[in-house]
Structures are given as structure tokens and as C-alpha cells.
Amino acid sequence: MNPVADQLEAHFTQWLRTLESDARLGSLGDTGDPAGSHGLPQPSAPVRYGEWEDSDGSTREVRMTRPEWLLNQLDAVLALGDVITPDDVAVVAAPYELSLEGASIERAVELLGASLISVGTSNTICPVPRLLDLIHRYRVTTLACPPQLAAELAALDEAAGRDPGASTVHTLIATRPTAPERLRRIAAVWGASAFEIFSTPSRPAAATPCGAGRLHLPEDRFEAYLRSPAPGRIDTDGTRGELVLAARNPASSAPAALPTGELVEFRSSRTACACGGEGRIVIPLGRVADAVPTPQGPVTQVDVEHALFASPEPQGRVTSTVEDGRLSVAFAVRSGTDRNHAALHELVRSRLGPAVELVPFVEDIAEVDTRARSSR
Questions:
Q1: What pLDDT is attached to residue 156?
Q2: With 0-12 CB in 10 A as exposed, 13-18 as middle and 19+ as buried, what is 148?
């Protein structure tokens, strides 16, 4: 057994003891005493706290008990175990301010034995130019961040006269939903392989990627269903809506049914995965708050990306805003004519209707906006 396996075995043994201990405490029942009749903390005591903004603008709280957090970390390590090694130097640009996502990814990177550079997403202490300098100075091999940040970093590197594809980065982990072809093109600029993970505010390791590149829900952990279901668009036999999770563990502190604020599409139950797994296949689409309603169901930037990246013109930089009930999507191109742009407009309109407005712009790598980071 190698040193990393020894380390993981030690952590897993410790975690299993913790889970067994909490299970025993849970069997004692509720005595009305917050500390329990034995003076021990009850398993429902929260150890991780976070917040997220619902589509109506209200703030929702997230609390994860110690057993829930440890089970989440097991899933996170399994999800990243095939792409992170002790030889890697990983940059993690995932939110950790009042969020569980960054902490979950970083903990998994550490448990897998890799070196870690934690930069968060505030863009204050570590703005994009400084992050790019860190990537080159410390020969970073793995970049875990939103797709938009990876695209901005590549453009900034090109603006400095360098070739991102010649850098040490060989693995790109997308921490926010995106169309597979967009992610592939961003990764190609870096000369890297692409990998996607899916997090929700209440469940950082919400879906586990398989060898076929699909995301599967760990339905042994929780029951998943959709709030306000609508017909699928990417898989026309599927359905889409806000993902709702209900923990299968009766001792969980989470509400019986917890909306996540994340819009997803479930593939049809008739759609088998090439990996042979039976877990439900999920397609993340982004936050419910970032979608626009249409008579055929909500539309997101990811939907637009699936249409746009059927064309060779769009590059990796894509942003969107919701304005007056319409989704305005700006995307970079390095070439193309008005005729080609008109064809893209017609393609998107035919698939998604008039709720989407396209704003193509010719990418000028000398004018990369490094002032703010997109969550996409």
C-alpha cells in the first residue's frame, strides 16, 4: 500500500468511527437536553454553516452535521480520485465565504496528497493577474475553477505573449455548469483534459462523475426530485426543474425536502449510461435565479451554450444577464461575419425562442476584463 493509500485509510477509519459514534448517539433519542443525558453533543449539532440566495432574493441557511459532512467528503474524494495525484499542484478557485463548496474541494485535494493553492473567488486579495502569476511560478498542474475564469486566464496569458497550452496545467476541473463543448474548447486552449463536478449549496458533492463523463446522483445518500418540473430541452425525453434533495438518513439535521437553488435536467430513465451505473444521470444548468421562464420551461446560459457551441465560432468566454425577462448572452468570437452571426441567432431562436438575446463580440485578448469574476 502506498503512502497516499495509507493516509486515506487512516482518514476513512477515523471517519467511520465518527459515523458509528454519532449513530450510537442518535439511537439514544431526544432527551430535551441539548447536550444529551450523557453530556455528549448530539449528532444533530451543526458543524458546517453556509448561506445561499434563493430565486426570490431571500437568504437561505445551510447546516451540515459532522456525519453529513464526512459522507460528503467521501464522495468528493471518490469524485476527484482519478484526476488528482500526489504529484499535482492544484489551484482551487471555488467560493468558501459562507459556502461549503470551496472547503469540500480543498479538503479532497489535501486528502489525495496534492499540493494546494487556495485563492477563492473574491478577486480582491488574489485578482486574476496575480492568480496567473501563481500558476506559472509554482507550475500548477490542476486548475479547479468556474469555466469563465479558466477562459479569462487563458486569454490573459495569450495577451502576455505566452501559450497557455505550453503551461504545466494538464487538468481543468469545472466547478460550475457549462456545455461540454464549451468546456472542451477551454481545456484545448490550455492543452488540458476537462473534468466537471457538480455542487449545490447544501450538498457540495451533489453528483459523482463516471468514466463515461456523465454525472450520477448518489441516490443511496438522498432522494432527488424536481420542483416545478418542465419538459427537457437537452434530453427531450427528460425533465427539468429545481433540484430538491431529501436526506435518506433519518438522523440528518436537514429538512425533509431541501430545495437547492440549482436548475438541473434529469435524463430519461430509458437513457442508459455507457458506464453501466444505475444512478440517475443529471445535467446541471446553473442557478434558478439566473434562468428566465418561458412557456416551454426555464432557459439558462447552459442551454444557450449547447446551441452556440454547435458552431466553431464561439470561444470560451461567455457571460449572461437577466434583463426585463430576457436572457442576454455575450460571447467571444475571433472571426466570423454578420452572416455567420445571423445564422447563430436563428439557430438559438429556433431552439429556445425569443427569450434569448445574443451579443457576439470579437475577442481582443489585450482587453480581458480582470476586474470581476463570473460564477460561470
A1: 95
A2: buried
Residues 329-372 have pLDDT tens digits of: 999 987 766 777 888 899 899 899 899 999 998 876 555 555 44
For residue 220, the 8-state DSSP code is T
CB 141 within 8 A of CB 112: no
Sign of CA dihedral 210, 212, 217, 221: negative
The whole-angstrom separation of Cα 336 and Cα 33 is 69
- The residue-averaged pLDDT of 130-148 equals 97
pLDDT of residue 372: 46
Residue labelled with grid coordinates 498542474 = 141
**Count of residues for the chain?**
376
Spatial distance between the Cα atoms of 69 and 67, rounded to a whole number of angstroms: 5
Half-sphere exposure of 206 (CA within 13 A, CB side): 31
For residues 204 and 100, the answer to whether their CB atoms sit within 8 Å is yes
Provide the strand spans (E) within the chain: 46-53, 59-65, 89-92, 115-118, 142-145, 171-174, 193-196, 208-209, 215-216, 222-231, 239-247, 258-266, 281-287, 314-323, 326-333, 356-362
Beta strands in 186-221 (DSSP E): 193-196, 208-209, 215-216
All three cell numbers of 92 = 482551487
* pTM of structure: 0.86
CA distance 306 to 314: 11
Can you tell me the mean pLDDT for 50-77?
87
205-226 pLDDT, tens per residue?
Answer: 999 888 888 899 888 878 899 9
Joined together, the cell numbers standing for residue 3 give: 503512502
Structural contact between residues 188 and 164, judged by C-beta atoms closer than 8 angstroms = no
Nearest to 173 by CA among 154, 189, 186: 186
Read off the pLDDT of each residue in 38-54 and give the average, rounded to a whole number: 67
Closest CA to 62 of 289, 287, 253, 288: 253
DSSP 135-185: HHHTT--EEEE-HHHHHHHHHHHHHTT--GGGSS--EEEE-S---HHHHHH
Question: Residue 222 forms beta bridges with which residues?
Answer: 247
d(CA 251, CA 203): 16
